Amino acid sequence: MKRTLKLAAEALKPANLARGLSAARNPPSQAEIDAALAHATPEHRAAYQAQVEHAEAGARLAYEGNRAREEERRALYGPAGVAVYGPELQTPEQLAAQSNGASFRFARVELGRQAKQSARDVLGRSSVREIEDPLQRAHVAAHERAVRDEARAPYNAPERVPVHISRLMTRGKTQLDEVLAYVNGSGLSPDRMFGVYRVPDRISQALTPHSEKGRPVEWDIVHSDPDGTTPPIVATAFAADDHWVAKRVGEPSVLDEELALAYCVGAGIGPEQCAGLARISEFRSIQSGDDHINPVCTLVRGVVALHPPTGRDDFARMRAAAPLYLHPPADVRVEVLNWAAIARAVHTRTLHPPETPSPFPYLPSTPQELLRAYLEIVGLHPQDCYSAQATVDGVHGLSGAHSNTGPKQPCVDGKDRMRAHGCRQLVFVYRDRPEYEQGRARWAAYQHEQLQSRLERGTGARRRIESDELGGMLGKVARAAELIDRLHWDNWFEGAEEDIPRYRYCWPPLS
């Protein structure tokens, strides 16, 4: 004990601390190491070589683990990727070269530091002064969009169909009825519709943060040219907190659209008969037991399928068979794209319009622009589409850190109102064809060459089901994660009393 204290005291002397810091900051060069090894015994050289190989293996293992985690979450590369995620990880060889090849142990430590640094999003973005004048903003935004459209043109499908997005204004309490009324009077048959979705924005959230029932809610209808005929369209809805799907702990959770798709397949409703699969969402504050007003957030309450009447009670038959083991159709593709990553680069303030000029003008400025790009590049036809949506997933706050207000922005009814932008994902569900496989190859090239992105990454879709009833070390890890989750939740939504389903349609898991 005395010897330990003596060694500690010796190490803490200012001169020794200075030498230690100097050695850490200035590791010996490879030439200095080689010179020292020239005078070492064979045993010392062998021991040193073993240490080097061990450090190399450790650095490589750390790099592979960090790279796998980075690839899973990193949807953007290039300048926007650096701004959103931090710099890309360097290989152990690159790090060793920077340190004159002196130490793979240094490379291993540096890899860990890089991973932490990237996770903090430390680099930010170049400062661009936003344009205040509305006319000048519109001119600059239109010019940037024209440049992006020109860059996209070579990737578009040669036989694509026209894509139109018609927006309508509804009220929160009657929104679905109003959407059905619009579709039934639109002259659009389901085989002319790519999909419908609630615009993932909250209008006038500062007026009634606790409810949207009396507030304007916009919907988009994505379609090709009308044909003048519309069969009667009805809605079949599935509640997120009902137990529809059989899942076990460790299995991927279910997408909203996969459940609605299972209904359509079971009822014999093909994509040419389906007007859309749309998530039903609310944008409001979580209810609490006191007078505290929680921030407005996104809540997915269910999913709805719009289709002609079948003349059978397919919903009751499906309800009686629940919980179901879903088997996705082999000929149907479900694609989820990460809009949230792009928003972190070009639309950082949810209560304001997209930044103009854009800090990264090669990226789309709105979810609708990206949605149109996917449809036109892959070359999807509306008669093959069950769904094309810009939507939300899970619980995400919309308010700023200190304010829930922003400038008034245009709405489809011609009025300007405050608006919070909440889109997180784009979802496409369609019957696959060989020509669409070629279209996805064009989409992959467009992502790589123009957007510098892999937008299928980091979506959070189908996250694996966890349980707090696990035993052993796995249970301890799960419970620790659950505790962290609860602490974050309680900090964000003080006094929240609502029971928000952690996994939609598939809770509780099967034993």
Provide a concise account of the structure shown.
With 511 residues, the protein is an alpha+beta fold. The chain has helices at 2-11, 14-25, 30-38, 42-73, 78-85, 92-98, 104-119, 134-152, 175-184, 256-266, 314-321, 339-346, 367-378, 434-451, 472-492, and strands at 164-171, 193-198, 201-203, 216-223, 234-239, 276-285, 296-307, 332-338, 385-391, 408-410, 416-421, 425-431. Helices cover 39% and strands 16% of the residues.
Unreliable sequence segments: 104-109, 116-124, 470-496
Mean pLDDT: 84
Number of helices: 15
The radius of gyration over CA amounts to: 28 Å
Helix content: 25-40%
Backbone shape: globular
Order of helices and strands: HHHHHHHHEHEEEEHEEHEHHEEEEHH
What kind of sheet is the major sheet?
A: 3 strands, antiparallel
| Tally of DSSP β-strands | 12
> What portion of residues belong to β-strands?
15-25%
Largest sheet: spatial strand order: 1-4-2
Question: How widely separated are the two ends?
Answer: 53 Å
Number of domains: 2
Q: What class would the helix/strand composition place it in?
A: alpha+beta
List keywords for this structure.
three-stranded antiparallel beta sheet; 511 residues; 2 domains; 15 helices; 39% helix; 12 strands; alpha+beta
Verbal overview:
- This protein is α+β, with helices and mostly antiparallel strands.
- The chain folds into two domains: 2-119, no CATH class; 137-465, no CATH class.
- Helix content is 39%, strand content 16%.
- The chain is built from 15 helices and twelve strands.
- The protein has helices at 2-11, 14-25, 30-38, 42-73, 78-85, 92-98, 104-119, 134-152, 175-184, 256-266, 314-321, 339-346, 367-378, 434-451, 472-492, and strands spanning 164-171, 193-198, 201-203, 216-223, 234-239, 276-285, 296-307, 332-338, 385-391, 408-410, 416-421, 425-431.
- The longest helix is centred in the N-terminal third of the chain and has 32 residues, at 42-73.
- It starts with a helix and ends in a 19-residue tail after the last helix.
